[in-house]
Write a structure and sequence with these properties.
It is built from five helices and four strands. The protein is mainly α. The protein has two domains: 84 residues, no CATH class; 145 residues, Helix Hairpins. Strand 1 and strand 2 form a beta hairpin. The structure holds zinc ion (ZN). The site of zinc ion (ZN) has 8 residues, from loops.
């Protein structure tokens, strides 16, 4: 392939620009905020699930408490009713009196047991409510940290995208100076190796950092200025300049 030395030198400008673009795209993909956002989103989802579970538990306990309290009320009402009968003096048979007193005593024991149950449920409910409150505070905190990380990501994205936009808009001015077949070879090598063209500098290919053999340098020296030469090692287009050491 042949191309004017000036067009070949433009490949170095293009390679520099493309390397900058690659670096920016890499930075965009690997922003530390992205991993942070991913981790925080997972934590937020986990805390939200925990809140639902804790609220369900607190709700169940509230229902249990209401049920236990109504049981206590029912027993208390029976005690009151029996006590009134006892106080009224209407029950006169000693046998009936004894039976009524024994029923009151039994109901009072039952009431005490049920009140114990209510207290126990209230304690568990307090713990469950405190857990809901703590989890909600944690969710707020995680959500705040997540929003801050998203803001930092968006700011970084905007800066990177601006630079990418500027470089991309500069690219056609460079490619316009390069013939189509040379540009196609450059793109092919860029696809294969990441960088399409490299400078021959002091006898070294700056693409793969290999020092060329005397034989290779001699054959490049012998090649016409408009001959497109390649690195024998990495196959990239090797661009000759005043610093090539030829
Ligand atoms: Zn090379």
């Amino acid at each position: 392939m042949k191309a004017a030395p000036e067009a070949q030198k433009r490949l170095l400008d293009l390679a520099e620009l493309d390397t900058s673009l690659d670096r920016l795209r890499h930075r965009r993909r690997t922003l530390p905020e992205l991993a942070e956002i991913d981790e925080l989103s997972k934590r937020l989802a986990k805390v939200s699930t925990q809140i639902i579970a804790a609220e369900t538990e607190a709700g169940d306990l509230a229902r249990d408490q209401a049920k236990a309290e109504s049981d206590v009320d029912a027993v208390r009402a029976r005690v009151d009713r029996d006590q009134k009968r006892l106080d009224s003096g209407q029950v006169s048979s000693p046998k009936d009196l004894a039976s009524l007193q024994s029923e009151i005593a039994s109901l009072q024991r039952r009431q005490a047991d049920l009140e114990e149950v209510v207290l126990e449920i209230m304690e568990r409910r307090e713990t469950a409510d405190a857990r809901v409150t703590a989890l909600k505070a944690e969710r707020e905190e995680v959500a705040g940290t997540l929003r801050a990380a998203e803001d930092r990501r968006d700011t970084a994205f905007a800066e990177i995208d601006k630079e990418i936009g500027e470089l991309t808009s500069n690219r056609p001015a460079i490619t316009a100076d390069i013939p189509a077949d040379l540009l196609a070879l450059y793109e092919k090598m860029r696809e294969q190796t990441g960088v399409g063209a490299a400078m021959l500098h002091g006898g070294r290919c700056l693409g793969c950092r290999t020092s060329l053999s005397i034989a290779d340098l001699n054959s490049i020296r012998a090649a016409a200025h408009d001959e497109v030469v390649r690195c024998e090692e990495c196959r990239r287009i090797l661009v000759r300049t005043a610093e090539s050491g030829l």
